[in-house]
Amino acid sequence: MPATRKDSTNDQPAGAATIKPASARGATRRSAPKGVSRKLFVLDTNVLMHDPTSLFRFEEHDLYVPIMTLEELDNNKKGTTELARNTRQASRLLDEIVSAAPNGIDAGIALDQASRGMATGRLYLQTEAIDVRLPAALPTARGDNQILAVVMYLADKHPGREVILVSKDINMRIKARALGLAAQDYFNDKVLEDSDLLYTGIRELPADFWDTHGKGMESWKEEGQTYYRISGPLAPDMLINEFVYQDGDSPLQAWVREKRGRSVVLETLVDYGHQKNNVWGITARNREQNFALNLLMNPDIDFVTLLGQAGTGKTLLTLAAGLTQVLESKRYSEIIMTRVTVPVGEDIGFLPGTEEEKMAPWMGALEDNLEVLNGTAGEGGDWGRAATRDLIRSRIKIKSLNFMRGRTFLNKYLIIDEAQNLTPKQMKTLITRAGPGTKVICMGNIAQIDTPYLTEGSSGLTFVVDRFKGWEHSGHITLQRGERSRLADHAAEVL
Fold first, then answer.
1. Segment among 156-160, 356-360, 459-463 with least mean pLDDT
2. Going by CATH, does the domain composed of 14-184 fall within 3.40.50.1010?
3. Where is the chain membrane-spanning (predicted)?
């Protein structure tokens, strides 16, 4: 969905820096005000490689693609990486647009037909040699500097028009501003401007909640759980599967199970903090962990996202719930675990062995948590624990993201670890692998992104949290409190 653009007189570029709030998606797109010239956005190569559909994301404004951008696309089109695939897609889109131009490309190509109404501006390709004298410190042999020369030329040629470079490269934007040129990041794929606005899945009820929402309340019990049908000022803002809580003399922990107009149905939770409800020997140590286990253990929830810093228990809770439902209740046939293999330090080169053996160095978190869970499996001595460990390992498969295309997982418990390093497109590829009976759990910490060009606002994990909120078969929890150790908790706070 294209982003809402600010008025053309605004400093921020409509195509590159503003985002429509989630509540306003689907609002009608505004066209450029009469008498105000459209902005001209010059696209850097990395924008097209990051999002090939960026050609259609600038609504009423015009785009300019320099020859050097096309050259760099050509140099990066080979390979099987995500960047190479995006590059080929961008080239195909450009070819479709140019091929459909009835009057040639000199006067620009209207984008409304190619974009199916998403964009009403025009696309201009560089059709002439441009000779601009750059400062001596900027060698013209570099592609980036040639694109800057094009921006300088266009700024001189159109003095009454706003010409803006759009680039994902921070240094490129700094150089542009040093030359007195306008430059912006491409923010159209950002879900949120500020990660603090991200949906947490939790809502604290005010002290006077029952006074303002208790009128006409219905209450009943069903299969050991208590249900409340309430209406009031807060009810319309609540989302399905959002958790609510209230502390005090009569504490409440519940989640929204149904929503109709201005009324919602709250269901009390299973208390996984109590030993009688332990999950593979694990009990919830805080409120958010209890919320997370309610999502992980509920068969009606097909998609779960867990956010939280290191030590909040994301992997341990997910594995404990998975083992219980695979080995005890037989709800799923096996656990499949995958993660993005982005090294924190220097890469260690090619690894020998099978797919699972190659993934083993990235799966230290899995082994650490299995060691904890194996210790909770009961008595039986060393032999018993070894047998349990072998049984557990036989039901956990480790897969690489590289071989996920075209697969369908039936009746599986699919765990996607370090999901903050995935792009929205990669996230879509993974989640659409789920067949009937499969549950997908995405875990990550958006403060630890290692992938270039991804930020907290544009990460695939942020993307799915925002897009899936309110769906009756999905749930999200942001875990707040670290439970690893007092040393780890203190380090997370002060370092």
1. 356-360
2. yes
3. none
CATH 3.30.160.250 fits 281-494, yes or no: no
Instruction: Decide if 239 contacts 477 (C-beta within 8 A).
Output: no
| pLDDT at site 347 | 46
Query: Distance between CA 304 and CA 302 in Å, rounded?
Result: 7
Model confidence pTM above 0.85: no
User: CB-hemisphere CA count at 13 Å for 304?
Assistant: 29
Q: How far apart are CA 141 and CA 87, in angstroms?
A: 22
Q: With the C-alpha atoms ordered 153, 158, 162, 166, is the resulting torsion angle positive or negative?
A: negative
Q: Count other Cβ atoms within 10 Å, centred on residue 279.
A: 22
Most distant pair of Cα atoms in the chain: their distance: 83
DSSP letter for each residue of 31-76: PPPTTSPPPEEEEPHHHHHH-GGGGGSSTTSEEEE-HHHHHHHHHT
14-184 and 281-494: identical CATH topology: yes
Q: What is the pLDDT of residues 137-171, one digit of tens each?
A: 777 677 788 889 889 889 988 888 889 999 988 88
Cβ distance 466 to 199 under 8 Å? yes
Q: 481: burial class by Cβ within 10 Å (0-12, 13-18, 19+)?
A: middle
CB atoms near residue 202 (< 10 Å): 18
The pLDDT of residue 195 is 56
Q: Helix 67-75 crosses helix 82-99 at what angle (to 10 degrees)?
A: 140
Q: Taking the domains of the chain in order of start, what are their residue ranges?
A: 14-184, 195-268, 281-494
| Spacing of C-alpha 452 from chain mean position | 14
Give the contacts of 25 (CB within 8 A, at least 6 positions apart). 1
> Tens digit of pLDDT for each residue in 107-141?
788 888 777 878 888 888 888 887 777 777 777 67
Q: What are phi and psi of 401, to 5 degrees?
A: -65, -25
Write b or e for each residue in 40-56: b if 16 or more Cβ atoms lie within 10 A of its Cβ, otherwise e: bbbbbbbbbbbbbbbbb
CB 121 within 8 A of CB 58: yes
Residue from 161, 160, 159, 163 nearest 176 by CA? 163
Residue among 245, 282, 265, 306 nearest 461 (CA):
306
Given a contact cutoff of 8 angstroms between Cβ atoms, the answer to whether 465 and 474 are in contact is: no
Residue 399 has a CB neighbour count (10 Å cut-off) of 18
Question: Packing angle between helix 67-75 and helix 143-157, nearest 10 degrees?
Answer: 160
